[in-house]
């Protein structure tokens, strides 16, 4: 009960999610999305100023991670949780990313090595 009262005090002093903060976060997310669209549709496809490649993809990933931070921190209220809970969630998230990367590496390895050996070794050759 005391923690709940502390949380209410924190919200009353502007540390929580007031209407002003919601609009600020919305504006940040809108600006990041507008930059993504401007780069994708303008610089890459229309004006051909930026070429597709690893740098562009890294740029998109960074902007997406920033947007994910704002969504999780403010709209899912993780920013206002205890530090131990934030660390616990972060560790789980890191393990999930690690698992996805390992599966992509393993999938690429299997794709390359399974295509080297045909399933039917005698297909395509006839013994007439």
Summarize the structure.
Keywords: Cell membrane, Membrane, Transmembrane, Transmembrane helix. With 128 residues, this protein is mainly alpha-helical. It has four helices and no strands.
Give the arrangement of secondary structure elements.
Layout: H1 2-12, H2 19-46, H3 54-75, H4 83-116
Helix pairs in contact: 2-3
Whole-angstrom Rg: 24 Å
Task: Give unreliable regions as ranges.
Answer: none
Helix fraction bin: over 70%
The first-to-last residue Cα distance is 87 Å
Counted by DSSP, the helix tally is 4
Helix and strand composition category: mainly alpha
Largest sheet: none
> Into how many domains do the coordinates divide?
2
Total number of strands = 0
DSSP strand content: under 5%
Compressed to H and E, one letter per element, the order equals: HHHH
Mean of all residue-level pLDDT scores: 85
**Global shape:** flat
Membrane topology: Multi-pass membrane protein
Keywords: Cell membrane, Membrane, Transmembrane, Transmembrane helix
Subcellular location: Cell membrane
Organism: Pedobacter helvus
Give the key terms.
single chain, 128 residues, mainly alpha, 2 domains, 74% helix, 0% strand, flat
Structure explained in plain terms:
The protein contains four helices and no strands. With 128 residues, it is mostly helical. It has two domains: 1-80; 83-119. α2 (19-46) runs antiparallel to α3. The longest helix is centred in the C-terminal third of the chain and has 34 residues, at 83-116. The termini are far apart. The mean pLDDT is 85.
């Amino acid at each position: 009960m005391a923690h709940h009262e502390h949380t209410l005090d924190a919200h009353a002093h502007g540390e929580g999610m007031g209407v002003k903060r919601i609009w600020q976060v919305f504006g940040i997310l809108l600006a990041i999305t507008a930059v993504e669209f401007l780069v994708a549709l303008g610089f890459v496809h229309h004006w051909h100023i930026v070429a597709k490649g690893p740098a562009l993809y890294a740029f998109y990933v960074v902007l997406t991670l920033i947007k994910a931070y704002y969504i999780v921190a403010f709209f899912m209220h993780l920013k206002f949780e205890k530090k131990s809970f934030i660390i616990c969630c972060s560790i789980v998230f890191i393990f999930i990313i690690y698992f996805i990367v390992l599966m992509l590496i393993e999938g690429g390895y299997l794709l390359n090595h399974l295509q080297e050996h045909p399933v039917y070794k005698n297909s395509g050759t006839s013994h007439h």
